[in-house]
Amino acid sequence: MPRSRAPLFLARAVYRRRRLRDAARLLPLVGVVLMVLPALWSGPPGQEGATQSGAGSDAVFIFAVWFLLIGGAALLAPALADPERTADPDQAESGD
Amino acid sequence: MPFNLLVLFCLLYVIALFLVAWLVERRASRGVMGFLRSPLVYTLSLSIYCTAWTFYGAVGYAARSGIEFLTIYLGPTLVFVGWWWLLRKLVRIGRQQRVTSIADLLSSRYGKSNLLGVLVTVIAVVASTPYIALQLQSVTLSFAVFASETPSGWALPDRNATAIWVAGGLALFTILFGTRKLDAKEQHHGIVMAIAVEAVVKLVALLAVGAFVVWGLAEGPLAVIEKISAVDSPGWQVQPGRWAGLIFIAAAAVISLPRMFQVLVVENVEESHLARASWAFPLYLCLMSLFILPIAVIGMERYPQANPDMLVLTLPLSEGQGALAMLVFLGGFSSATSMVIVETIALATMLSNHLLMPLWLRFKPGALTGDLRRGVLLARRFSIIGVLALGLAYFRLSGGSAALAAIGLIAFAGMAQALPVLLGGIFWRGATKTGAVAGLVTGFAVWAYTLFLPSFGQGAVIPAHVFAGGAFGLPWLRPQGLFGTQGMDPLVHSIFWSLVLNTAAFCAGSIFSFPDPVERVQGAAFVNAFDGEVQAERLGWSQGQAEPEALLILAQRILGEEALSFFEAGARAQGKDGYLPDITPAFLADLERRLAGSVGAATAHAMISQLFGQATVTVEDLMAVATEAAQIMEYSTRLEQNQEELTRTARQLREANEKLTQLSVQKDAFLGQISHELRTPMTSIRAFSEILSEGDLPPQMVADYGHILHDEAVRLTRLLDDLLDLSVLENGTVQLNLGLSHLGRMLDRAEAAASQTRPERAFRIEREGVEEIFLHTDADRLVQVFINLISNARKYCDAEAAVLKIRLRQKGGRVIADFIDNGSGIAKEAQGLIFEKFARLTDQRRAGGAGLGLAICREIMANLGGSIGYLPGQKGAAFRVTLPLRLEAAKG
Amino acid sequence: MTGRVLLIEDEQNIAEAIRFLLSRDGFEVEVQRDGVAGLQAARAAPPGLVILDLMLPGLSGIEILTALRADPRTERLPVMMLTAKGQGRDREAAEAAGVSVFMSKPFANAEMRAQVRALMGM
User: DSSP alpha helices (H): ranges in B184-256?
Assistant: First the structure.
């Protein structure tokens, strides 16, 4: 029956949009964790293995994370920006 | 490359930038924006984050400390990727409140307190001055690098002279494009576009050098990575404390640096642009950083003696790549100039809005009657020169010694002091002004004591014994070891203590103080920025003390032409015709925000207070603020919206009803008036024809009386013509004769025809604006309107030396012609009536018309797709005629 | 047997016609075109008859009439009122204010002259 399906679909759209926002909120947290990692790899100075900085691999790792974040944000941004315009009713409730 | 050629290139580049800015400003003033304000341009303009410090200094930083330099770009990346948390709200608030700077945002949030604005302004100026000096230094340094390479040995051109030239040029550019107009919203399209162009130059230059290094000098990326890994330098060790601290401080800086706030929030034209920038700006940063390490490593390997801060430039120069070096030079030049320009504008806005304007208003209370716009612009121009002069002075005093990176980080840490107050302001309703002031003062003091002043060197400002033993001989007050902390990196030490103490003072101050009503209302508006626009209007001005016309005059002094359209829109929103809305609290709040867009929240608030006394906060306002539950808020929001709509409809109904009553009265009056207008000439005709028919008059009298008969007959005919004309126009059955006509020549025709009205009178017509326009319209009808307006002025303008000013303008696809005389104007009660039939205001100077002229004009303009209206607030009587450039014949 | 007539009328041509007709009948006619000046003239030297237009600049005909009736020197002065509006309401207002004769424009010359003669007691 078409009448009962319409609201179901609507609820799902709203649900999706909310999870999308959750993802957008999580993304920087993931970024923080990944970007602090290199600081934890290097032991305190003077310890064995500290002579070689290993900066090359660190740099490669950071740039990889960087591109990952950019890609993630690029995927999320259009979907987030769109419903913004068509001011949806649940804005107030979920708006921080 | 010869030095002269370099200077020439430099000049050409600057001229090109001028051209770009100028063209964009011109297009913007015509309302043609198109791609000029796209997400792309927005993203590129954000790149002023990358100053000369990034461009030259990053390589030096990398050469000294390895991958640590990346933190400066990782911080902003995290902030932008997480735009949904903070930036979205910041931009929304910035647009809602028409914020002009970060100082304005904080002052507005904390009860429109100017004290806070002053405080943030001072911090910003202190923190930014060395940073501006740094940019000047990098430009002079790069000139010097080129100069030393020239065979003729052009001994280093005087560095100070170079710096002065650069600073002067920047001041000129900034004043030209930064203070051309006092916009309703403080936006500078020309400058933003120039910065976007510079952003591209920077990126291309750095990528080009990187590609040259990786594929030209080394054997591809893999080999480079190996070399990077092999570097064995103690500085290259990642220090966890610094790593995290720097990411944090960079993240804070990208929000709170004055120039970043300017492009991020103030210059934002559309919120959706932020979504695009959320990934595009990190991408830009990532690309900028991509080749820094390779350049540093390969450069150091080949030229171990070179100054690492200038490696980007010396590398291609030494390799004989003249063109590449030129590109790099322009890139560095771009980074420095764009930063200085925007920083200067941001600081100048703060200085003029929070220091100069309030002082001016205080010491010259009569200032409200002067031309404010020129005053504000002047204040801003002086501020620009002042800020640049300060930077220049710092540059000359410091001798430009310290490594580039150090100065940048000091500035970052200084501006970061605004962060706790900013975050608290938009997420915590309990934050108060007292707390904000306490936090800012504490943070600023700690920052100055632990980082800024020590940066001048031991013994320079702070004596050496204080470094060792602490202030007042108290060991726990050592500048680089507060409270006995040992072995901390001085930068991390300063960031840690300044922000911890800042936040502590802020929270404590907020908890133990009580906000005043304005603060609470603003706090609610900021924290609940996404609950719709309603809260922002809660701050009520007490109603009814204000004459709309006085308000309009004030607004015109600040907004200029904008003011009229703003008032018109306000009137329309209330369902009223004309230019003068009712002065409701909502309208006043709206107007205040609009003014704040030009002069800052605190000043705008003070100005309106000066006119209307204190703002009042009603019980409902306070209840709304006190209600913490979001659902209740939302519910009442909806109710208010409904109620607002009801009020509007009711008002429209009431006005319609009034109009109907008036119309029925008018209908009676109309019949009486027609009767009167017909009977008066009839009386003369009947009396004289009877006299003449008696037949025993002297010939001279017969001639005289015959003449009177003729005149009266003509008058009757004209009246009937007018009535007929009006009825045809009103029914819309008029035949329009469309064609192309020259505006200036139509006015000439009208002037000539109208000169027969009261020809004995001294009367001058001044025309200004664009006359060279061809209109597609019915020329005869339009001229008829012009004749009417001109002869009305000739008839009714009561000035000793009557002057009629005709102002012509083109705006979008419409032409606006204002007819303004210097008489005493039309009384407010009568302004609504003059376009009605037979609405001659006084019979004192009846000059033959029956009072149908303006009624006919109104109908003609409606038929020509335009309008005519009375323009209030212009001293004399003023009429505005608006019509489309092209009237299509399709009208039925 | 001459009498003085004060004519307060802002329409120049109508005033001229009345002036011509009445001076031919031997009256001395003073013409005022403005309500305020007209009232002053009537008070300064009360004439034998005042002819008033209803719609005048400055003061309206009714206002002048009311002022004349309130002043002991002029309260018994005969006043003829002319109007081009010709609406019943105006006549009622004029009669309430104490007009002697009310005439609509346009009028027949003969009738106007007869009314003037009657009011001047001839």
Answer: 189-211, 221-230, 240-256
